[in-house]
Amino acid sequence: MNRSSALKAPAGLQARMLLTIFLLGVVYVVLMAALFSAGASGITIAVIAGALFVFQLLAAEKLGLRAMGAEEVSPKEAPELHAMVERLCVQADLPKPKVAIMRTSMPNAFAMGRSKKAATVCVTTGIMEILSPAELEGVLAHELAHIRHRDVVIMTIVSFFASIASMILQFGFFFGGGDDDENPGFLALVLVSLAVYVVSFFLMSALSRYREFAADRGAAEITRRPSALSSALMKISGTMQRIPEQDLRSHSELAAFYIARPSTKSLFNLFSTHPAMDRRIAALEQIEAQLQGTAAKPLAA
């Protein structure tokens, strides 16, 4: 495995991110057309959509951290965690992100941010309690790989489209559309918004599943210890099963950002934000074999 190429976003991930943005752009144009047919002016639509997009991109990180109950910590408050992140950033050739901790027994971690220079890596107190230093390094490297690949920004943009469609749906159901025969544009807007929300959800889930594999590969290349990350994933999965489902459910809204899905219930792969844990561990074992020079063929990107 070539180190310089592995630190970049894999071609497969780049292609999927571009395809996701393109498809969302298409459905978003349809949504704007539906807004126009419902009576909104083109200038109003452009101004509101542009303002909301800028707000989402600039404020998503702070809003997400607040929603998850994460708090930024200084080097004095968490010296070992900061030192670990700083060391991994040197290996990954990344500027050091902000570091945050979420106080919950759920073992998890995530990264947020609009760019490599404006990002935050967060771990829960639960994950720090159960993982060894090497395993925690693997988890942090996984999150840094997300930042390196820029897929965190794409996920933020994808969530923006879903948020806009959701707002229109809520507005429509709350105020109602009157007589559908008198206001066909409003009915079309609600139906298109519903379609945009569904499409956004499926695209975000599909992209999220693939980006986890890519970040696992990136973490393995940064640390050169895929076995540490696979061990961490096994511990996370085992501990997650002992946490009450109602406690995990409170974290489900932003599940796509976590290293592990905050739920113990199995879902159809089509609806899941994460690939099956055994598949991720198997892929890491193959990478371990590659690094040791024993793999029969390279791992497909």
Protein topology:
Layout: H1 3-6, H2 11-37, H3 42-68, E1 70-72, H4 79-92, E2 98-102, E3 109-115, E4 118-124, H5 125-130, H6 133-149, H7 151-175, H8 184-223, H9 226-240, H10 245-249, H11 277-291
Parallel strand pairs: 2-4
Antiparallel strand pairs: 1-2, 3-4
Description:
The chain is of the alpha+beta class. It has one domain. Helices cover 65% and strands 7% of the residues. It contains 11 helices and 4 strands. It has helices spanning 3-6, 11-37, 42-68, 79-92, 125-130, 133-149, 151-175, 184-223, 226-240, 245-249, 277-291, and strands spanning 70-72, 98-102, 109-115, 118-124. Strands 1-2-4-3 form a 4-stranded mixed β-sheet, sandwiched between helices. Helix 6 crosses helix 8 (184-223). The longest helix has 40 residues, at 184-223. It is globular and about 60 Å long. It starts with a helix and ends in a 10-residue tail after the last helix. The model is unreliable at 1-6, 177-181 and 295-301 (pLDDT under 50).
Provide tags for this entry.
301 residues; alpha+beta; 4-stranded mixed sheet; 4 strands; 7% strand; disordered N terminus; disordered C terminus
Largest sheet, in brief, is:
4 strands, mixed
State the share of residues found in helices, binned by percent.
55-70%
- SSE ordering: HHHEHEEEHHHHHHH
What's the average pLDDT? 79
Shape: globular
| Overall SS class | alpha+beta
Number of strand segments: 4
Tell me the β content.
5-15%
